[in-house]
Amino acid sequence: MARNYNWRIRREYYNLIDKGIKTLEVRVGYPDIKKVRKGDTITFTDYSNIRFEVIRVAYYEDFSEMLDSEDSSKAILGVTKYKALEIYQEIYPEEKESLGVYVFELKKQTNHMRIYTLSSLISDHNLFGKFANAAYSVTDCICKDYPKHFEWYWAKQIPRVFNGTGEVVICTINNNVAGVAFLKKDATESKICTFLVVETYRGKHVATKMLEHSFEYLGTTKPLITIADYKISMFESIIQKYNWKLTQTMDVGYYNNTSRELVYNGKLPE
Q1: pLDDT tens digits, residue range 156-204?
Q2: In the chain, which ranges are E strands?
Q3: What is the pLDDT of residues 48-63, one digit of tens each?
Q4: Which of helix, strand or coil describes residue 124?
Q5: Is residue 195 within 8 Å of residue 215, measured between CB atoms?
Q6: Local structure of 53: helix, strand or coil
Q7: Domains in the chain and their CATH numbers?
Q8: Residue 49 and residue 160: Cα distance in Å, rounded?
């Protein structure tokens, strides 16, 4: 999956990138710079959380070679190629230039949201595996609340997708996983087993879109769902919006030894 990197930049240059006037960002080969690949994103969080997608990466031995190959007006506006060389060599002395010169072509991202269901990808083995792994990866952090989450996901939830008693809903924004919902629907339960919005995508209507698809699959706006007691504030607006009812409180130890599980719209076995 694509990675995001945060860079520092002067305000006047950021403004030009944000307006799409400056489309090339030039850096020397520090270790973190060498890691950036096409498809990754860059943020300049001193000014905003907008992401800029890396649509091309080019490497050159030095600034002279770079300026012979690239359009310098897309990197430093209003100066000749020779002046651009002078500017870069003032910023980066010879020992830094010797690390190599990297050019990143950037494109401002728009929040293009898509919803996938894992069952719809079964016929494409590569895509199914990619999305199944990506969906698990963003939820691995909840193992502290649910120690058996890894085994549950691969041994129970994924088989449900194949046998028609469950679904994995995945929301992406600009091809990055923004949220997931793991659902169960059989003769005994219509349940949201796991529901998570990745922190950097909260406040972007991801939860609403995933809930809409989850409700459609489950056939109800009041599915069984359990929430750890210390996370209730994160779900409060959803609970109120859909009028979910607290129907059961589990003792500490049901899933873990640190929190109680609050049950809405149904009951778990004691």
Answers
A1: 999 999 999 999 999 998 788 999 999 999 999 999 999 999 988 888 8
A2: 4-6, 24-28, 41-43, 51-60, 101-108, 113-117, 166-173, 176-185, 190-197, 224-228, 246-249, 261-264
A3: 888 999 999 999 999 9
A4: coil
A5: no
A6: strand
A7: 4-108 (2.30.130.30), 113-264 (3.40.630.30)
A8: 37
